[in-house]
Amino acid sequence: TFKKLDMEYRSKDELYQMAATFNRMMDLMKANFEKQRQFISDASHELKTPLTIIESYAQLLKRRGKNEPEILEEAVEEIHSESRRMKEMTRQMLVLARGESLGSVELQEVDLTDLCGNAVKPLIQTFHREIRVHSSEEKVHTLADPRQIKQLLFILLDNAIKYSKKPVEVWVGYDHGLPSFSVTDWGAGIPREDIDLVFERFYRVDKARSRETGGTGLGLSIAREIVHAHNGKIDIDSEEGRGTTVTVSLPGNE
Ligand code: ADP
């Protein structure tokens, strides 16, 4: 009887554990569902803005485009720039959607100094801006997915260049003993109250300014996902009107 009681006790305990696990799973599924629902609703909303602009310029073209060359030029220009923004936004949405469903990075041993140096070189041509790379002599060993790190650097440099006019600095080395790199610009900066929010999808500090610069509000949320997939950390240090430094730290691989 002793043994039987013990068994019963154990199976009840297991039952409780199973129920608790099941409840946790349900909570996670609900939270995920809620996140996806929010994403779809935000994405539709964000795509509606450029579409509305395109639609109204197309209407203007139809009414007055044939006879008024200035209208024709303005409308074509706006339609072109808004459709490019939409294209970039859908590309980034796909990156986010894929990242979430697969959640996989292909980690390999890399020297972060090499990787960052090589990633930045072609971008100097792309961005037409001076990008100064500072790195220590030593190799900075870590496990990383080179393609993803390149994508990450692209996002951070793209922002640094969009929101400043001066040369941009990239630093690679060990920060508090961890393989790290940072991107610094001497530009607009981010107001203190917005710093925690800029990682949220579609969040932009100044919607009007971002529209001019072609922003989508998705870059930093992709950056954060890449960093988290590497079990790393991403931090922003910024002062309005002075500039911004975004630092990424990855796990060590000594
Ligand atoms: P976006 O495509 O709008 O740049 P991000 O997600 O990359 O989207 O950034 C979100 C917002 O954070 C930007 O709209 C901008 O307001 C702010 N931001 C990001 N990086 C910088 C930076 N280097 N300097 C100033 N503001 C920045």
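^ adenosine-5'-diphosphate complex. The helical segments are 2-65, 69-102, 112-127, 146-162, 207-213, 219-229. The longest strand covers residues 168-175.
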